[in-house]
Write a structure and sequence with these properties.
By secondary structure, the protein is mainly alpha-helical. The protein folds into 2 domains: 156 residues, no CATH class; 109 residues, no CATH class. 57% of the residues lie in helices and 3% in strands. α4 packs across α8 and α9 packs across α13. The two termini are 46 Å apart.
């Protein structure tokens, strides 16, 4: 629905106007996904795209631009083609921000098709289109993976495949997938049934005597008040440690999703009860 309604509306005629606003446009896609999974606004956009297997909306703009140029070049003798040729011919100054064809030149360069610049044969572009898009697809994915590999918080994304991304989880309710998404990406915040739960990651846990900060690892695998739920639901992951627990949570089955969901929800409810008693 998002792709068919929102994206088609936002990117209407984007091949003409949007090349200087790609970062702004991308916020529309990532904001939608964050709202869908109830994620914090601070979650990195590249992590969102890797988890869901989405490409930046920039790719849609590039594809529309290629199609637009092919349509222009297919119109022999039409004024649109004559204007396009004139703009290309006069584009010696690569810094002329008002010359639209320089955006197209940039696409060709990124797609390893610079040799097609100043080519006005629509057939050549039709033949090269798939290769250009494939090259740019790889570039965009590698850019996100590179940023993830340099991140301490989201470096687990480097090991995501088509089998363990959020979008690959099947036969689960959206609420369960949301909890898994928040466990992976929110790191210290959960939202469930319109209620927010925030772990005190900068303070020692006040619910047990381990004397460790109440970060995500402590909440999932250490805090003693959750031992009963832990033994029932996530005993499978008892070999987790602070260095690998995010990666361990990647290779999960539909049954594991249900168990993680039950553990997190039960533990958050227990935590809320304890907080209310302490504040009473």
């Amino acid at each position: 629905m998002f792709n068919s309604i929102a994206v088609s509306t936002v990117l209407y005629a984007s091949h003409v106007w949007s090349h200087h606003y790609l970062l702004l446009i991308e916020q529309i896609q990532t904001a939608f996904i964050k709202r869908l999974f109830l994620l914090e606004r601070q979650v990195a956009n590249y992590a969102i795209r890797i988890e869901t297997g989405c490409l930046p909306l920039e790719f849609n703009v590039i594809k529309q631009t290629l199609n637009f140029v092919i349509r222009i070049l297919s119109q022999e003798g039409r004024i649109a083609k004559l204007i396009f040729k004139a703009l290309v011919t006069s584009s010696e100054n690569d810094k002329d921000k008002y010359n639209w064809t320089l955006n197209f030149k940039s696409i060709l360069t990124r797609g390893n098709a610079s040799h097609l610049w100043k080519c006005f044969d629509a057939g050549e572009f039709i033949t090269a289109k798939a290769g250009i898009l494939e090259t740019i697809t790889v570039e965009l994915k590698n850019k996100d993976i590179q940023r993830a590999s340099e991140s301490l918080k989201y470096n687990y994304c480097v090991e995501l495949t088509d089998l363990n991304r959020l979008i690959s989880i099947k036969n689960c309710s959206i609420n369960r997938i949301r909890i898994v998404a928040q466990t992976r990406m929110n790191y210290s915040k959960f939202r469930y049934k319109d209620k927010s739960h925030v772990l005190n990651i900068d303070e020692s846990c006040c619910f047990c005597n381990i004397n460790t900060n109440e970060d995500l690892f402590h909440f999932l695998f250490e805090c003693t008040i959750h031992n009963t739920s832990r033994n029932i639901f996530i005993s499978k992951f008892t070999n987790a440690n602070r260095d690998n627990f995010q990666k361990i949570l990647l290779n999960i089955t539909t049954e594991d999703v249900l168990k993680i969901f039950n553990y997190v929800v039960c533990s958050l409810q227990r935590r809320s009860v304890f907080l209310n008693l302490m504040n009473y």
